[in-house]
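Sample pair:
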Amino acid sequence: MATLLHNLGGLAHSRHRPDDAEPYARRGLELRRARCDDPEGVAADAAALASILETRDEWSEAELLYREALAVYEDVGDHYEAAMTRNGLAAVLRFAGRPDEAEPLFREALGAMETERGAAHPETATVRNNLAMLLNATGRPADALSLLEQAAVDLTEVLGASHPATVDIVANRDRIAAHVRTGVDPGPPPETGH
């Protein structure tokens, strides 16, 4: 039942319906915590609920859930899930106004994703984009541009130029390139998913 609820929550979340997703994810996590001796399953459910809460700007609870999941993944040595959870936690910290705490987590996630999935993997490019957006937001557009140029090349090669993820990252790159070139900040670039 917990797995079914996890999947229903994930489906609603992927359809951008966090209000529908949250009850499924919350109930699945409650069931798994109460009746299952599966720490990794609990961690997956906690991270899934955190991601849903993040889209609703519920930073405090999302942070606690991501930290809970991260502790489990680090304990069991699941480097991929730990990296993805660090990326989610870093995003929460960034949007909660704590960029100094977010940056090292993004960097750790990026290093792990490069090792686990490869430098050109789409998930690695997404983490690279998220770090770039943080760097741009904290006044380092040239550093952000370097990361986005690599992400755009990787995604174009792997997914193609017309894939939505490629289009989003190319748009971010172009906006920040214009900022670096002109010195005029065009405002926050559109975000990609994390």
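The two ends are 27 Å apart (CA to CA).
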